[in-house]
Recover the amino acids of this structure.
């Protein structure tokens, strides 16, 4: 029986080396799930490039756990059901360790069941309406309390008393405006001082709405527009404002979806002085930011390419994932998810981002005014970082809810008064 | 140490102290809350120091910055810095060597008001008028003396009018103005009408002496405003109608003559807009002086480019599918996707910058309505295109043949008309018109690969409503839908207005399936 045992030991040694070899030489795959065609390509293509750059940089530093990283790029083509299919392809087919992707809330909602079922990890880099916390998702963009509410508070400080909440008609503006309306009323703003207006996607004829805003703002009380108007419809909106003679000093517009990328390549003259609220601007004066911008220009081969907030969110999310994998010593999603909470990495604005128990991160809130170069002059920033709040305190259904993915709660919607998990079915569906 | 020296200097030399404190205040400009800084701006403006104007102008323009290396306050223009206080050159700097002095809308407004007071003594009457308007926008009793001084030496009528309005606005908020002065100011402002006057007058309702005068003035203004509101809605409806007309008219021709529903029509519009972009790019790099002519140059080019593509699509695809409406629908939809993605691959998914020539920017006041120039030009252009098409249809051989084919294809063919050639040329003409529409729409919408999608559904509604193949029907349909849309929008919101229009059209089609102006054509015979 010498031979079989020898064979067995040889075999086991071989398997052992093979397994070892796989561990050290096989690259770790990272999924990138961003639309490269269709309507959302305008915003998402840049994020794909940013991820490729981050992965290249990490590989230059020696990869993760001694293994190289290998990006797997798929194109869900701005088609929401296709997002779910492509996510399944990445996780089940390519066996990626984590996925970085999605932009619109509806695409995120579309992939959630896939990530739950196949137990993988999604990093979601865009500011969104909140009211959600999933075990498999890490939200590196802003929750409403890190973007919308600080911006409105800043405007209140600047003496604004009348508010136009203008948005595109879909889930993010509707939920955000619901939160803001409640917030304003809690601060004593009267009903007649709030005007809410929704427009279809891609609205291009703004004559009536701008006239309404002009009339609404001519009562003598300082008026501002809080805009959740989606990307493309913004430019004709600002042009109409300028053409009707409304300047940012009379009625400023603060937008939550207009960033450097959206301003690139358009005539910014009519937009100067209007505002945007984000957690990062390319104009942030910080060495880490300058380093990032230089690397980006070098990677893309063009010093005209801008950086923006969701890119920073990916920068933070990616570094957090690398750190968590190193902490867990494996890419196994369960272990990485547990290792993520409490991970701390520097952000690009001179502070630190910390992953919270509800899978949202700490971020500084900032307000910038658009300048003639298509960049933002920062006019206000919060003192230190604000932790993200998954469940808004301003909505009746979610006031008592928290999310905590650590022991002993381990729940995404835990009701603190009834002490039960699944306290609400209020998750804003699509 | 510096402070002690300053105090000592103050004690010894009052005159020198003023100059010192100007610099101290200027150095403190970047610090503190916006309110504190607004106070500093006022102090600088009223110091009478000749450096104040340059300093504050730089602050408003965002050119004022602090050098990171030595903390000096500098004015940065085109990458070179000059010391804001001494005026000495401070070398060339990049964005990363300086910390810009923050300025927000409120502070900017405050500085503008302060500069307004400074600008009242400017050389040119236009600058003085502008300064007066700035004072009027943010009236401050402290500026009264400066205004009165300026009024006493003003000779230019326009500047004088502006100064008087500004003075009246200031008087209304000045606590120590006499009742007579205030009544006079009220009368002057009430004459101007408009929302701005309402804002100034409304607070006076609580003033016992001026209550009645203010109330009548407000009632007058409100009546005028209501009338103006109707005028504005009508204008907006016509302007939306002219955009719809431009987008739909090409479609109407192809639909009427060839019976083809061209789903790629919107993409042809988009290509027209991209042609404009290309023309402007070339002009920007090679002949910046021609910029105001860019649209005139783009028009024929856009027509040729899109007409050529239209003919190619007709000869290559649509020709093989006549009589099979569902297949043509799908095939042209496929073409639209190909064109969209091709543009996305070549030009990138981002918006492209298409500038407005100077004659298309801003607005003009007509009967109290502010009409924007780009809308006026687009309306004229839409009507011109309509007239051009009318001429083609009525006065040319091609037009005659097109009408013959529309009315009875078989008989036209028997008369010796090459219907295949007419189809191709009609398709080309419709596509070319789409290109012209693209040039116009590039002025009011984003130039992105998605541009066409926004117009295709609206265009169909116009064509179906007006009657396929009938130019007059398209004209009437476009303006009706535009005006109805604008009437419904304030009542129901932009979303619901669109829904209402759709329901209205569905009901209308039940009654008159061939639209407002029915023509006999292959599309409707089947």
């Amino acid at each position: 029986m010498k031979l079989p045992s020898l064979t067995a030991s040889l075999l086991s040694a071989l398997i052992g080396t093979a397994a070892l070899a796989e561990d050290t030489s096989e690259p770790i795959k990272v999924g990138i799930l961003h639309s490269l065609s269709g309507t959302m390509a305008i915003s998402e293509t840049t994020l794909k490039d940013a991820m490729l750059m981050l992965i290249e940089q990490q590989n230059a530093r020696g990869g993760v756990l001694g293994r190289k990283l290998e990006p797997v790029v798929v194109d869900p083509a701005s088609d929401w059901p296709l997002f779910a299919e492509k996510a399944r392809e990445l996780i089940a087919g390519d066996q990626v360790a984590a996925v970085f992707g999605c932009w619109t809330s509806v695409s995120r909602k579309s992939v959630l069941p896939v990530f739950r079922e196949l137990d993988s990890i999604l990093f979601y880099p865009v500011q969104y309406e909140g009211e959600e916390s999933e075990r498999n998702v890490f939200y590196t963009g802003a929750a409403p309390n890190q973007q919308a509410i600080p911006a409105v508070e800043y405007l209140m400080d600047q003496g604004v008393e009348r508010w136009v909440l203008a948005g595109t008609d879909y889930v993010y503006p509707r939920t955000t405006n619901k939160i803001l309306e409640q917030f304003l009323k809690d601060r004593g703003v009267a009903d007649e001082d709030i005007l809410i207006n929704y427009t279809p996607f891609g609205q291009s004829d703004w004559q009536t709405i701008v006239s309404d805003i002009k009339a609404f703002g001519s009562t003598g009380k300082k008026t501002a527009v809080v805009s959740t108007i989606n990307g493309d419809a913004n430019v004709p909106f600002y042009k109409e404002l300028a053409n009707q003679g409304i300047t940012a000093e009379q009625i400023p517009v603060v937008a939550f979806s207009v960033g450097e990328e959206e301003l690139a390549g358009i005539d910014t003259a009519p937009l100067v002085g209007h505002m945007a609220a984000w957690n990062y601007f390319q104009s942030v004066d910080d060495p880490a930011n300058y380093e990032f911008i230089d690397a980006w220009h070098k990677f893309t081969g063009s010093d005209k390419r801008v950086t923006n907030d969701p890119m920073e969110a990916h920068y933070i999310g990616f570094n957090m994932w690398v750190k968590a994998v190193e902490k867990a010593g494996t890419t196994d999603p369960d272990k990485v998810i547990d290792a993520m909470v409490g991970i701390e990495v520097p952000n690009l604005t001179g502070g630190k981002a910390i992953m919270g128990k509800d899978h949202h991160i700490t971020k500084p809130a900032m307000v910038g005014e658009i300048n003639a170069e298509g960049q933002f002059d920062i006019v206000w920033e919060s003192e230190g970082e604000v932790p993200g709040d998954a469940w808004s305190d301003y909505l009746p259904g979610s006031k008592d809810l928290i999310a905590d993915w650590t022991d002993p709660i381990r729940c995404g919607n835990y009701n603190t008064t009834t002490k039960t998990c699944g306290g609400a079915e209020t998750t804003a569906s699509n | 140490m510096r402070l002690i020296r300053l105090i000592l200097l103050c004690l010894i030399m009052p005159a020198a102290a003023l100059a010192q404190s100007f610099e101290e205040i200027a150095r403190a400009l970047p610090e503190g809350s916006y309110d504190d800084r607004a106070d500093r701006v006022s102090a600088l403006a009223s110091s009478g120091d000749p450096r104040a104007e340059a300093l504050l102008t730089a602050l408003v323009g965002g050119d004022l910055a602090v050098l990171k290396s030595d903390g000096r306050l500098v004015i940065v223009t085109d990458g070179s810095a000059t010391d804001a206080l001494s005026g000495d050159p401070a070398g060339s700097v990049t964005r990363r060597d300086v910390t810009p002095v923050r300025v927000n809308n409120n502070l900017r407004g405050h500085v503008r008001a302060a500069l307004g007071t400074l600008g009242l003594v400017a050389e040119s009457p236009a600058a003085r008028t502008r300064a007066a308007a700035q004072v009027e926008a943010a009236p401050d009793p402290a500026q009264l003396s400066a205004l009165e001084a300026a009024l006493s030496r003003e000779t230019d009528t326009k500047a004088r009018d502006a100064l008087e309005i500004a003075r009246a606005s200031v008087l209304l908020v000045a606590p120590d103005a006499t009742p007579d002065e205030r009544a006079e100011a009220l009368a002057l402002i009430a004459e101007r009408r408009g929302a701005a006057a309402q804002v100034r007058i409304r607070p006076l309702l609580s003033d016992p002496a001026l209550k009645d005068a203010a109330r009548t003035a407000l009632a007058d203004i409100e009546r005028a405003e209501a009338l103006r509101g109707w005028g504005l809605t009508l204008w907006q409806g016509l302007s939306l109608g002219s955009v719809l007309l431009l987008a739909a008219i090409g479609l109407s021709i192809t639909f009427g003559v060839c019976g083809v529903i061209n789903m790629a029509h919107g993409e042809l519009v988009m290509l027209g807009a991209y042609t404009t972009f290309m023309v402007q790019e070339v002009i920007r790099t090679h002949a910046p002086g021609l910029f105001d002519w860019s649209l005139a140059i783009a028009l024929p080019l856009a027509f040729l480019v899109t007409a050529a593509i239209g003919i190619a699509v007709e000869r290559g695809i649509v020709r093989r599918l006549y009589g099979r409406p569902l297949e043509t629908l799908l095939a042209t939809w496929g073409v639209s996707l190909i064109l969209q993605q091709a543009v996305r691959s070549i030009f990138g998914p981002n918006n492209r910058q298409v500038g407005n020539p100077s004659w298309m920017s801003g607005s003009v006041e007509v009967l109290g309505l502010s009409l924007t120039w780009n809308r006026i030009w687009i309306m004229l252009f839409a009507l011109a295109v309509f007239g051009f098409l009318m001429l083609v249809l009525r006065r040319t051989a091609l037009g005659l043949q097109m009408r013959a084919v529309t009315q009875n294809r078989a008989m036209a063919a028997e008369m010796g008309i090459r219907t295949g050639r007419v189809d191709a040329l009609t398709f080309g003409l419709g596509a070319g018109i789409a290109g012209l529409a693209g040039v116009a729409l590039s002025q009011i919408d984003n130039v992105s690969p998605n541009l066409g999608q926004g117009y295709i559904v609206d265009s169909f509604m116009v064509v179906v409503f007006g009657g396929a193949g009938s130019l007059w029907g398209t004209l009437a349909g476009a303006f009706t839908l535009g005006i109805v849309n604008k009437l419904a929008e304030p009542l129901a919101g932009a979303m619901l207005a669109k829904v209402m229009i759709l329901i209205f059209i569905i009901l209308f089609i039940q009654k008159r399936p061939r639209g407002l102006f029915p023509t006999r054509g292959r599309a409707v015979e089947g």
Q: What stands out?
A: Chain B touches chain A through 58 residues (CB under 8 Å). Residues 6-20, 521-526 of chain B have pLDDT under 50 and may be disordered.
